[in-house]
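Hey there, shall we discuss this one?
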Amino acid sequence: MSVATEPRVLAETPHRVVIDADWGFARLDPVPDEATLDSFYDSHYRDLLGRTGRGPDLARLLSPGAEGQLERQWLTATVHADVIDALDRTLAPDAPRTVLDVGCGTGDLLRSLEMAGWDARGTEPAEAIARAGRAAGLQIATSGARPYLEEWHANRRAGFGAVTLMNVLEHVPDPVGLLRQILAVLAPGGALVVRVPNDFNPLQEAVLRTLGGERWWVVAPDHINYFDHSSLRALLERLGYEVVEQWADYPMELFLLTGDDYRGRPRLGAKVHHRRRAFELSLDAATRRAMGRAWAAAGVGRNAHLVARRPG
């Protein structure tokens, strides 16, 4: 008779986080059920925009005037350019240049992909956000990832040359199932780009030791899963993906450790974001990407990026 393995507890406060005994990444314990998540997003979505890692990004993009324009220019020149470069270097020569951006938000990455010659479409479960992208002429379905992928696979449509999953995997109750679905709709030699928060990383723990406070990156119930560079890679490889490259983006915890404690201080948070944005725009792409790979090797960086290929 087999004995179930008890998950290792990583944190008890502000919420209980354990290492998944089967897959090795960290997650809330218990995992919120669908009714809890539906209720949360229906009743707290406006508040969510203001307090989670994904929220401020959307809020800045949706802001009118110069701030929204500057944010788009920065994303286009850095995050989008890096994703497109990685896809171009990873995609097999005979794979189609079709891409699905899961959880695409307002569709800014879709726009950059289209301009780079990709046939791009996206999914976004929030109707108001998806509508903003469609108004700009983008192909965005108001749908969750799982139903969209199930319908695509069931109708035996051609596989995508690429799928992008930008700050989505931390929100889904079953990340393993989602990644399996994506593998099933990728064409042989197709590429996957994943970005997740790099949580429980050494700089975050250094902040807690020196400045105190709670683990601000543990946010329930919307952030269900907590990855780092190594656990993300291990998960993808176990599922049959071939990992090609990893990098990190700017380690925002450096601001906390050098005197700018922006936790719970939105105005200061906006200021340090502007400084980070100016720094990255001052670098050439080769230098920025080399720094990102070095940060990933050291286990730091605010977000972990991974590029993988479907074998074949």
